[in-house]
Amino acid sequence: MPAIVTRGLTKKFGDLVAVDHIDLEIEEGELFGLLGPNGAGKTTFIHMLSTILPPTEGTAKVAGSDIREGADSIRAAIGIVFQDPSLDNRLTGRENLDFHGRMYGLTKEQRDERISKVLELVGLKDRADSLVETYSSGMKRRLEMARGLMHRPKILFLDEPTLGLDAQTRRSIWDYIRMLNDIENVTIILTTHYIEEADYLCNRVAIIDHGKIVALDKPGALKDRLKGDVVSINISDPEKYLSIFRKSKLVKGAKIVDGTLYLQVSSGERAIPKLIDLANKHGGQVHTVSLSRPTLEDVFIHYTGRAIREEAPSNQARIARIAKAHGLR
Amino acid sequence: MAAGQVIYTLWLREMKWLIRAKSRLVASIVQPFLWLAIIGVGMSSTFGTIPGTNITFLQFMISGVIGMTLLFSSTMVGVSVLWDKQFGFMKEILVAPVSRTQIMLGKVLGGMTTSILQGLLLLVAAAAIGIRPSGIVELLQVLVFMVLISASFVSIGLAFASRMEDPIAFPIVMNFLIMPLFFLSGGMYVANTAPGWLSFLSRLDPLTYGVDGIRTAILGTSPLSQFPIWLDFAVLGVFAVVMILLGGYLFRKIKA
């Protein structure tokens, strides 16, 4: 039985379609990534799956229950680590965990045992009795991860688990996520706009943009789909050379992103001199050239026509604003 | 899962806050004493006893101050819901496998405990200056009215909070509600001898029945009592039940 099945799942905030008819199946035990820029609809999507937000259209089954009718049994089966902080700063770390354990109906013995276990796991044992307001953001994040696991969920949602964390903390959280998935066999759905996070962690990745899934496969298979290398060229008047390069037999695909030309070629080393010659012949001055094997970033550019880093904060701000106007923050 | 455990968990959290928020604790204790000391004592020395009775203004006013303290602190409990939304903790509460009704009841009990504690402190202070219920039955009557007042107004505050977002705006909005309720309640003046329109409006104010009930319980039936104590109890009891149900209904649709 799949852990999650969605059929035409859609969420609209007024005119804005945040999630647009998503059909998706996630198997039990998968470590599944939703990769997309801010404002792509990732958070809205998992908020619907975790029954916090009702869908506008479509259906979904999570852990065998319908998100509309079976909200209570879904809530008992899932854990979620929200993108934004959701700790009580005026309680200690231990008290936050204790609160959680009580809300999920754990007995005193279960709580004591699991609290000490998860604190050990995230390395917060010696700070457990300090107020959360004294924690660093990395510690808070780790505490939230610990909390999400305390009730042993079958499915764990992680919304941007390493957003804003330093490299070292990110690394330890990645190891932790992998371990959970490997050893505890928890189905994990994580959203991220860090390409390397999706690449490093996930069995399968869905690239999501403007509320739609534009590509879905294993990270390796997604990269293979590009078939070849990517040459990026900085040149004056890139539009002019876009059409020139497109006529060349060497070039299988071409795009301009942020004023840089990205050309798909089968063998980058051989193609570069010829491409520069071609540019020179048309009077072009090539400033810089670089060659890369396809990365998930290139896959992303290929499917969405833009780099993930250019993010669309305006779109995210717009979603937040519209959602707020509808009382759905 | 046991509803009791969920309600207790939320209540326990409110109690931890109460103990930790030292400044809030001190302010909420000091404020009603200031009212008693300055207004009560000042007015009593100016006017002496209330005409036609041998009751001093301070004795008269004590039930008003208790009613006011319960009203203020109870309605403001709702702001904690808004801070929870603001700091994201509401999401943690709402995603747990518990019913919204249990969450609301936990908040109600936590808020009631906080405001009744303040009411009890006032009662102790009043006893220290010689104003006290004449017996254990009367004391229990006072407690019952304190429970009903706080249950009503905590529920109203939570009902508003379930529909609002901004914790800064909340007290401002609630003041629109609190001020007329307090001034019409007859806590600070004798409603029986007030002009007809004022007396009429006063009867529409649920707090009137709470203040009148506490006053009768403390001073005994006097010319200052507006209604028989059973009527106070019946009106306020019905109001409290309706407000809890209304609050529970609105809270079911709360958004994180």
Structure, described:
The complex is a heterodimer of chains A (329) and B (256). Chain A is α/β, with parallel strands linked by helices and 329 residues long. Chain A has two domains: 4-218, 3-Layer(aba) Sandwich (Rossmann fold); 227-293, Alpha-Beta Plaits (2-Layer Sandwich). Chain A is built from twelve helices and 14 strands. In chain A, the strands form three sheets. Chain A has a six-stranded mixed sheet with strand order 6-7-8-3-9-10, with helices on both faces. Chain A has a four-stranded antiparallel sheet with strand order 2-1-4-5, covered by helices on one side. In chain A, strands 12-13-11-14 form a four-stranded antiparallel sheet, with helices on both faces. The longest helix of chain A has 18 residues, at 167-184. By secondary structure, chain B is an all-alpha fold. Chain B has one domain. Helix content of chain B is 77%, strand content 0%. Chain B contains eleven helices and no strands. In chain B, helix 2 packs across helix 6, helix 3 (57-75) packs antiparallel against helix 6 and helix 7 (136-163) packs antiparallel against helix 10 (206-219). The longest helix of chain B is centred in the middle third of the chain and has 29 residues, at 100-128. The model of chain B has no long low-confidence stretch (mean pLDDT 89). The chains are: A alpha/beta (329), B mainly alpha (256). The interface between A and B is medium-sized, with 30 and 28 residues.
Key features of this structure:
heterodimer, A: 329 residues, alpha/beta, 2 domains, 6-stranded mixed sheet, 4-stranded antiparallel sheet, elongated, B: 256 residues, mainly alpha
Average pLDDT level of chain A: 86
The SS-based structural class of chain B is mainly alpha
Strand order of the largest sheet of chain A: 6-7-8-3-9-10
Q: Look at the structure and give the CATH class of the largest domain in chain A.
A: Alpha Beta
The structural class of chain A is alpha/beta
Shape of chain B: elongated
Number of domains of chain B: 1
N→C terminal distance of chain A? 33 Å
Low-confidence stretches of chain A: none
Q: What's the total count of β strands of chain B?
A: 0
